[in-house]
Specification:
Distance between the termini: 18 Å
Order of helices and strands: HEHEHEHEHEEH
CATH class: Alpha Beta
Oligomer: single chain
Strand order of the largest sheet: 2-1-3-4
């Protein structure tokens, strides 16, 4: 999602989702980046009067496990949208490619057959600095952006 073009929704319109139910599934891997993304998501939810305590949150070991965490969250809770938050940083092997593609395909499949939209907030960066830049640095906070996308999906 690019921050250069976003259809505008007023805060008043977004606040129509303050009674909706949201979930977040986050990876434990790259914990500093994940914490920054979570803070961004909760910041957006707070902006539209959704209390952090009313958001379901599951933590899973890594980004690959985001898929099964989302399945579990869908089966445990009646939610209007879920955000899957992960961070994969390029290493020296093809592991990055396999995990990134698998997570994208898994979340796509859940969106096709699931009962609520799942917003994929998965950073796939070449290095740690890029991850910092996208989790509250010079490129904004993708956690914030994905929380906004989750809310917008509840309005369609």
């Amino acid at each position: 999602m690019s921050s250069h073009y976003k259809p505008s929704y007023s805060i008043e319109v977004l606040k129509q989702s303050s009674n909706k139910k949201f979930g977040i599934v986050s990876s434990e891997w790259n914990s500093e980046i994940i914490e920054r993304l979570l803070n961004g998501a909760y910041e957006f939810f707070s902006k539209i009067d959704i209390n952090k305590d009313s958001i379901q949150h599951y933590s899973v070991p890594g980004s690959f496990e985001l898929i099964s965490g989302c399945v579990k969250m869908q089966s445990d809770h009646d939610l209007d949208a879920i955000i899957a938050i992960g961070s994969i940083i390029q290493g020296e092997t093809k592991h990055f490619d396999f995990i990134s593609q698998s997570v994208c395909n898994g979340i796509k499949d859940l969106n096709i057959v699931g009962n609520c939209p799942i917003i994929l907030c998965l950073l796939t960066d070449n290095d740690y600095q890029q991850a910092l830049d996208r989790s509250g640095g010079k490129h904004g906070n993708k956690g914030y952006d994905c929380a906004e996308a989750a809310v917008k999906m509840t309005l369609i």
